[in-house]
Amino acid sequence: MVDMTHINGKEKGNIRLFALSTCVWCKKTKKLLDTLHVAYDYIFVDLLDGEEKDGIIEEVKKWNPRCSFPTLVLNNKDSIVGFKEELIRKKLES
Fold first, then answer.
1. Burial class of residue 40 in the structure, from the number of CB atoms within 10 Å of its CB (0-12 exposed, 13-18 middle, 19+ buried)
2. 36 by DSSP, 3-state: which?
3. Which residues pair with 41 in a beta bridge?
4. Which residues contact 77 (CB under 8 A, 6 or more apart)?
5. Which CATH number covers residue 70?
6. What is the distance between the alpha carbons of residues 47 and 84, in angstroms, rounded to a whole number?
7. 64, 71 Cβ separation under 8 angstroms
8. Distance of CA 84 to CAs 49, 66, 90, Å?
9. DSSP state for residue 45 in the 8-state scheme
């Protein structure tokens, strides 16, 4: 597994963001997580190469078969695909 970048904040479980460095919706999702001050890990999939990239894409497909971005994985049980601010807030503020 590739190392993801960790952002410190309030612990709300295992939160992972799979994003693209050039995606406006990915940036909005990351900014929302920062605004909510939650701890999370993220990775810019488009900046990976070879086997690392292939492995991460397989992981994303488990949660989002279309492999679109952003894909946010919560506690290895839920995923939110796309920038859905209200849903993200609801899941993380509870």
1. buried
2. coil
3. 6, 16
4. none
5. 3.40.30.10
6. 24
7. yes
8. 28, 17, 10
9. G
Other Cβ atoms less than 10 A from the Cβ of 41: the count is 15
**78 has a pLDDT exceeding 90:** yes
| Structure-derived torsion over alpha carbons of residues 1, 31, 93, 40, reported in degrees to the nearest 10 | 20
Residue 63 is encoded by which pair of tokens? 């949660």
pLDDT in tens, 9-63: 999 999 999 999 999 999 999 999 999 999 999 999 999 999 999 999 999 999 9
Burial (0-12, 13-18, 19+ Cβ within 10 Å), 25 = middle
Residue 2 and residue 15: Cα distance in Å, rounded? 15
**What local confidence, expressed as pLDDT, does residue 87 receive?**
97
Domain that holds residue 69: 5-93
